[in-house]
Design brief:
- Pfam families: DUF8199 (PF26622).
- The chain is elongated and about 95 Å long.
- The chain has a 3-stranded antiparallel beta sheet, with no helix packed on it.
- About 5% of the residues have low confidence.
- The chain has a domain of 55 residues.
- It is an alpha+beta fold.
- It is built from 4 helices and 3 strands; from the N terminus they run H-E-E-H-E-H-H.
């Protein structure tokens, strides 16, 4: 539960650096390291100018965490409230102690063995 709370409240930032269309670096929470080719390329080189991804790109994915964690019971709709009440009731009643059931043959002694029946029937457990 604590891990779920931590993951929902922390803001996440993932940065990716692409150079010539290839993924060069990925960084979580920090700035990405560049390859040093962020300068615009000259048009003298015709082969590199023709390709579509001839320069560097940075892609940033940012997921903002939740700041307001106070949720009251009245903020939930009727279906969620009924589910929460039913789940709580069921969970609390499943944890009650079960009374120990009486054993009906507890006071009766086992039968007295006159002969070894397994040996007479030649039935052996392996």
């Amino acid at each position: 539960m604590a891990l779920l709370l931590l993951l929902s409240t922390v803001s996440w930032k993932v940065e990716k650096h692409y150079c010539m269309g290839r993924l060069m670096d990925v960084a979580l929470f920090t700035d990405v390291d560049t390859c040093g080719m962020d300068m615009p390329m000259s048009m003298d080189d015709e082969n590199l100018g023709e390709t579509e991804n001839s320069c560097c790109d940075n892609e940033v994915v940012f997921v903002e965490g939740q700041d307001d964690l106070k949720i009251s019971f009245n903020d939930l709709d009727v279906e969620q409230q009924s589910f929460l009440v039913a789940f709580t009731h069921t969970y609390l009643h499943s944890l009650q102690n079960v009374k120990e059931q009486p054993v009906p043959h507890k006071l009766y002694p086992p039968p007295i063995l006159v002969k070894d029946i397994q040996l007479l029937d030649e039935v052996f457990l392996i």
